[in-house]
Structure formats: structure tokens, C-alpha cells
Amino acid sequence: MRFGNQLLLSVFVLLGGLCLWVYLSADAARTLVSMGVPEAAVAVINPAASEAHGEPAGEGDAAQATPKGGNAGQPVLVAISPVGTGTVNDRLAAIGDGEAIQSVTVMPQATGTINEILVSSGDEVKKGQVLARLDDEEQVVLRDQAEVLLRSAREKADSYRNLRSFSRLEVLDAQIAEETAQLALTTVELALKRRSIVAPIDGIVGIVAVNIGDNVTTASNVVSIDNRSELLVDFWAPERFAVQVKPGMPVEASSVSRAGQIFEGSVESIDNRVDPASRTIRLRARIPNGEDQLRAGMSFGVTMRFPGETYPSVDPLAVQWDSQGSFVWQIVDGKSVKTRVRIVQRNPDAVLVAAELKEGDQVATEGLQRVREGGPVRTAGDKTPEVASR
Questions:
Q1: What values do phi and psi take at 11, rounded to 5?
Q2: Based on the domain organization, do 267 and 298 belong to the same domain?
Q3: Contacts (Cβ under 8 Å, ≥6 apart) of 344
Q4: How far apart are CA 334 and CA 320, in angstroms?
């Protein structure tokens, strides 16, 4: 007997819950109708749901289908946000290696022993400045000898020209001997000049690689000189940027050694072909280094920005999904319209989409669960029809 009472009580509780569910939710009423429950029975509990389904609650009961205070046609409360515009950020980021705008390794022009070193690491030198000297005693002797021979040949040629007792052929031989002596002196002076190792460019001296007393040849590295008033940074960009990059475009570079600092420069040159293996193209940027903060050989993070296309911008909460893809609920004349969108770029505060939207259009961002195609909607500041009619 007790079991029968408990069973009966459970049935009543379940029926009550079902009736409450149908009364509060129009979707529940439609679900029961689709399962075969008579619409007349559903209309007894929720007449408005039966009318929304498209048929009267029952024969001769049309007046009961839309009772006073029913929810049929009630606008859905939503939050809205205006459509803006945004630009697609097309950005290139790459790693590059820096080198001085001019860099040379100085080698002797002659073989010999280092007699004197006139610079040290870090010195600033000018083009033509003497860096070191080789032993030159032999060249000095040869120069003096050539000067003596030249004087002798010159005096002989002068005397032959002034005296009429010599033939034209003898005078010509004397002139040739003078010119030969002059060429010999020039050759010896050039050899003596090459005993001095000079700077071929303006720049900063690196570590001197030789010592006094070292025997060097024309293949010996004496010192390196860098003109680092500007740096050239080589980096590689994907081939999709090959036609977008132009000489003179701005470039931003950052170095690990100067964390937080941005060095501005411009594109110096662009390679004439794309590497078929990596599908990248080599670019070279010029970075000013007037304060001498950068060094050749540093690695740089290079950034370039390109103007992108403009697209409608919507709140991320407005984008919804269904079986056909993404869409937003556009609010037009107080009604909801499903507008298909294609997401172009996601940003932290907005989503750029390709859609039939223009700046200033309104889209719903909250309260989307009950929004239906063509259904009435209202915002937080609007009054419901019942309140407006009082």
C-alpha cells in the first residue's frame, strides 16, 4: 500500500514538472508535438506555444490560443554593438645578421718584417693613415742609388743637348738614359712606399693580429677595419612579400644586446630571385649607427609592416556558428537578421570579417540563445509593448 502511494506521488511530480517545462518553454511544446502529443493537450498548458507553432489550439478555441499576457511575439532582450572597421595587419618578422657598411681586412703589399705598429684595437683611423711599417733599409739604399743614377743621366743629357759636337743619335740615347733612370727611381720609391701598411678606408680598428718582429707576406692578415657608421642587415622574407617590398620602405630592428631599443632603418636592396629551396627572398636593410651602439656580426630581429585591406570589425561575442558556418545576428528595424560572415583575422578586442556589413550597423552580442530569424528584439533601454501601452 505504501509502495502504491509512493508510485502515485512520483507520477504526479513528474507530470507537474512536465507541465511546468511546457508552460515555460515554447521549445518544449514543439518537442512534445513532434513526438506525437496532441496539440490540443499542449495548448491547454501553453496556448502561446501552440499558436507559434502555426496552427490554432483547437477547433472553435481560437480565442484561447492567444490569451492575455501570453509570450507570443514578445521581443527578445539582447545587447547590441555597432560594427566598426579594421585593417588587416600584414606584418613581416625575421632574423637577420648585421655587417658594417664597409669592412676590410688589411694585408701587406710586400713581404718583410714588422718594424713598427702605430695603432691599437678600437682606434679610429682615416683613409691613408699608416698602421704599421715593415723593415725598409734595402729599399732606402736602392732609392738613393736610383737618385744618383738619375742625376748622372740628367747631367749627361743636358750636356749633350748644349754641345753641338754630338750627333742627334747620341743626344737621343742620353735622353732615353735619363728617362730610364727616372722610371727606375719611381719603381724604387713605390717599393719603399709599400713598406708602409696604410688604412684603405675610414673606420674602427679591430684586434691587431701581428707583433713587432713578425715576418709577414702579402697573404698575412694584419688587422681588420670596420666602418660601422651604418650597418647592413641581411634577412630572408617569404616569397609572398617579394612584390610588396620596395627599396626605401621602413624597417625596425632590435638586438639582444640592446634589449628594448628599436633601431629604425630602411630597405637598402632586394635580391633578384626567390630561393627555390626555402621559397624565401633575400633582403638587405640599412640601419644608421651614429651613436656607435651596434657592432658588425650582431643578430637582429627585423620587423616590417605593410598596409592591409579594410574589413568590417565586430565584437568577438557576436560571432555564432551553425552547420553552415559562422554568422552574426544583425539588428534591422527591431528584428534579427542572420548575416553570414567569413572570419579574416582575430584580434584581442575585435574580429575582422568579410560580410555584407557596413560601419555603424548593429549586431547582437548577448541574449542570443532565444534570437530567431526575423524575430523581434529589444535592447536594455527599450520598453516592452505591455509597458508602452499602459
A1: -60, -45
A2: yes
A3: 88, 311, 352, 353, 354
A4: 20
- Answer whether residue 71 is part of any domain: no
Alpha-carbon dihedral sign for residues 233, 236, 238, 243: positive
Number of other residues whose CB lies within 10 A of the CB of residue 343: 16
Note the pTM of the prediction, 2 decimals.
0.55
Of 337 and 387, which is predicted with more confidence?
Answer: 337
- How far apart CA 310 and CA 324 sit, in angstroms, is 25
Q: Report the alpha-carbon distance of residue 388 to residue 169 in Å, rounded.
A: 131
Instruction: List Cα–Cα distances, 280 to 73, 95, 202, 242, 277, in angstroms.
Output: 60, 13, 35, 8, 8
d(CA 291, CA 313): 43
Domain-embedded: residue 190: yes
Q: Of 325 and 15, which is predicted with more confidence?
A: 325
Number of CB atoms found within 10 A of residue 249's CB: 15
Structure confidence by residue, pLDDT tens digits, 48-86: 544 444 444 333 343 333 334 344 468 889 999 999 998
Picking from 282, 306, 330, the residue at the C-terminal end of a domain is: 306
The residue written with cell numbers 556558428 in the block is 321
Q: How far apart are alpha carbons 309 and 88 in whole angstroms?
A: 6
